[in-house]
Fold this protein.
Amino acid sequence: MAKTLIDKLAVLANAAKYDASCASSSTTRKNSLASGGVGSTEGMGICHSYAPDGRCISLLKILLTNFCIYDCRYCVNRVSSNVERARLSVDEVVKLTLDFYKRNYIEGLFLSSGIIQSSDYTMEQMVEVARRLRQEHKFRGYIHLKTIPEADPLLIKKAGLLADRLSINIELPTDAALQNYAPEKSTTTIKTAMAGVRQGIEDHRPDRKERSRHRPPKFSPSGQSTQMIVGADASTDAEIMTSSTTLYSSYKLKRVYYSAFSPIQDASKDLPLVKPPLMREHRLYQADWLLRFYGFQTEEIFAGRQDDMLDLNIDPKLSWALAHREGFPVNVNVATKDQLIRVPGLGLKSVDRILRARRQTRLRLADIKTIARSVKICRAFIETSDWTPGSLLDSAALRAAFAPEPKQLSLL
């Protein structure tokens, strides 16, 4: 029995949950009311992505198809996987996007796909979806295309001129892991495609001197991102963070997304059937944040960690502080910004508020309670005009105060 459009949507929307790079950060605000088009990148909807300034952008997140000619051992949609399959036509994706927008469910599209027939054929279909939305329907909403690295560079260039963001999956942390789990794919091909997207972005960036006379068409104006599967191979967290740091610097990525490996029941016998390491994924995101915005180095985060793995019970910033107690307490009234942002419980916004507030007054612990996201954590690492942690900072039980209490596992 042929599947209805709703049946296909149910299958492909569910299959798209394995694509983690769904954020629309840094996109330019676009409103169709001023341009006479359809869509916008403002508001709320069904698949939420958050921009750095706090805006919530909703996306229809689907696959063009979950059929695939590849047999990547970590992928639920691999050719040997016994999952329900479906495929949408270009017309159906365009119709769904416009219908969902007009019902105020979404403000954009995140489109990925399994590989059917060939990489070029699949990429052509995805580009055609974006082309029709942009050129025929004047859609001004956000479009994120998951690009196929094996596709012709000309197709990727067309995609960049139509989409707000492109992403190319790096797949796994190391070349050896990719060769083992996805021998049909090539790290060289993936990185070449990522370099091509970076070059395209740079080539289409307006020259400040020529800006008034010539403005080149925008190319993936929200940049590019990538996705890395964690937990499928034996890579340590330190190796993952080192790989991510290289990717950020080499390709000017906006984001590396970490996706916890989730084995399925028909997985190869040599893949353990365990729950996905979601807490590990969460800790990797936290470590990634420290590297990008807090001035940490990979070596610092993993110093003293003999297994090169992040502590799953406490966040990496707190773990680092507990291992470097000699640098605390930090006096919030005189400390530099670099010192303050390393205090557990103080985020970037909290530090900025502290720096502004202390120009007017000497800060007390009560003031920090109104500023910090968690004074329970930071009070052990700071001094104020009326507070010092004293022996609390040196207490052997300090870590236990922050780590979750052990729970009895159920035997049923």
